[in-house]
Amino acid sequence: MCWTALFLAPLAVFAVAGAPTRPIRAATRLWARGILFGLRRFIGLDYVEEGREHIPSTPCLLVANHQSAWETLAFLVLVPDVAIIAKRELLAIPVVGWFLRRSPMIVIDRANGTQALRTMIEGCQEAVAAGRSVLIFPEGTRGEMAESVRFKRGVELLYGKLGLTVVPVAVNSGLFWPGGATARPGTVVVSYLSAIAPGLPTAEFLRGTETAIDRELDRWRGARALCEEV
């Protein structure tokens, strides 16, 4: 709360200056870095990345599982200038919501059905045209570590419309910061998996992406089960 409150002054300056995009994005990333530093310094929650070589130098579609609030803010730092598809409820966060609306987020109202899909596709096309990658959490809400990954409608439309290489991403943040609980010490692993080419049949794309993420999550499911037995 203290760290976020420090961004009230920049907010006022940016608002008077007409909300310049690049400085706002930089400030948003700085805020996220501060949160990650606080998690590491005061709680002992750190992270490591694996497989960054799978991210192409050109815009791509990052498809990640969603287990906690951690990845929502961490990707602002992990993939600079990425356009993150996010739910409108995030904008209700004081101070932060103002920055998110004007920075990397593509905000959609999930209750608005067809219009939400149209907004998502148009926002992603604009981001790609500007040379930015897109990140989506296609499960639609936080999942449990034990649950199989299942995508909701929308990601297959993006895959077909954008024509981008897809990089599946598996995160195990739910082991340390599950929904509604307090974060605890540990190391979140962010695993970028082998890229999936554009142009595949929808069913093949969905099956390949879900399976790749699920297979990676099995690494931690097995370790968790062993710890519980011990």
TrEMBL record:
Pathway as given in its UniProt record: Lipid metabolism
Domain of life: Bacteria
Record domain Phospholipid/glycerol acyltransferase: where: 60-174
Pfam families on file: Acyltransferase (PF01553)
Protein name in UniProt: Lysophospholipid acyltransferase family protein
Organism: Methylobacterium komagatae
Gene Ontology MF terms in the entry: acyltransferase activity
Signal peptide: 1-17
Keywords per UniProt: Acyltransferase, Signal, Transferase
SMART domains, alphabetized: PlsC
CDD domains documented for this protein: LPLAT_AGPAT-like
